[in-house]
Amino acid sequence: MVGGRSLGCSTCKKRKIKCDERRPICMNCEKTQRQTNEPGKPESYGGEPAEWTSPPAFTASPPSSDSQKLCMELVHAIESTKNTGFTLELCGKHIPQLPLRIGHSKILDSSISCFLSAHRGLQRPALGPSESQHKQYSRALHHMKLALDAPGEPDLDATVAATIVLADFELFNGQTHNWITHARGTEAILSAWGPSRIQSPWALDLFIIMTSAMVAASITSRQDYFLDTPKWRNVFERAANRPSIRAIERIEIKSWRAYTRLAYVVRSMNSPVVVASPKTAERMLDLWNQVSTMKDDVNALLEDPSVVVELPSKHADIPFDTYYSFHELPVAETLCYHWKFFILISQLMQHYYPDLVSPVEAEADKIKAVVNICKCFELVRSLKPLGTFFMHSNLPRAATALLDHLRIWALSACREILESGLVGGLDMALPMMHFIHLVEEWHQPSCHQWWLLGT
């Protein structure tokens, strides 16, 4: 035969009948309801079979800008360190939200660059702080000054987020006094701009994240905490009543809202006259009611298997039969901070105002909170140092309410955490020791006595 290869479908070729080459199925096959492959393409003319080659491999394009490169570095740092000792999961709920905000603000971008350099330094402590890290920090502070001095209204969200990220950078580098300075700066910014500026979900998240640092700054400055006022308490209410808020986030917000009164409590403990006043007793009772009424919400979370399960302990050196295995580490962090604060307020109420609480119930709830903190240690033990950062302050508070042998264990567990940080170049005790040093400068032993010993 002469001529090109037939374009008919395989069924028509096999039956040796003319194919009308209609796609996707010819008329003959449609009438007889036969399964077939569609007719060939005109390019298939010729005697040689078509040559097939594998598709080209996909290669990632290089970052098109510095912002894209920074975003990729941050995402890689978050994802590659999950479930490791250098996890960023517990550095705050703002961290996973930062990649989407890179490229819109120089002040935030330069702060994130500093933060990542400090995080890399923790993973390679032998290198130490580099000259480029100091330049990045200077650039971030320069951008901060330009943003605050610029005419018009600065970007509140970006400015506050940058101060939070720079505060994390200071902690990673062991510069605790600078961490307090950044907290005071945020306090001044929010106080000057007022609660009406905090409206967006992102701004509300940043506000909650900075609460603890601003409380510490307020205590060290021996001033009333401006957040412990009705207009600022409304901001906490707005944050807690958002429709998309989860139960654990609502507990976190309520805990920090109660925590804002701690500055007043610290000053009150310095003066026997103030402690004995009806006003102080009333405010302390209100604080006690705030933290104790969250008990049902916390218990509901602990009974939810989608949040946490209680498993038999695998470590012989831990004096508890079971431990809590949380599906999300930030949930364990939030609950431990809540339990620590509950223990502290319970100890104060039992010591100074025993007539205002039920002693049996208060003691039982306090011991339960103590045990709950201890049961979280086994989960995070393999995540030293960063994964256990939040436990270094919670275990000593739990130890103040434990019996002798359990107290020794809690303090040894805390020492294990601190030593792991020192190996990685992170002195986790610095923030607390710096805070205690500032409190001791008041020359009032009663104040730091209850802070350290719970009495």
Automatic annotation (TrEMBL):
Gene3D superfamilies: Zn(2)-C6 fungal-type DNA-binding domain. GO terms for molecular function: DNA-binding transcription factor activity, RNA polymerase II-specific; zinc ion binding. The keyword Nucleus applies. The keyword tRNA processing does not apply. InterPro entries: Fun_TF, Osmoadaptation_assoc, Zn2-C6_fun-type_DNA-bd_sf, Zn2Cys6_DnaBD. It comes from the Eukaryota. Residues 30-65 are annotated as: Disordered. PROSITE patterns: ZN2_CY6_FUNGAL_2 (PS50048). Residues 8-31 form the Zn(2)-C6 fungal-type domain. This is Zn(2)-C6 fungal-type domain-containing protein. It comes from Scytalidium lignicola.
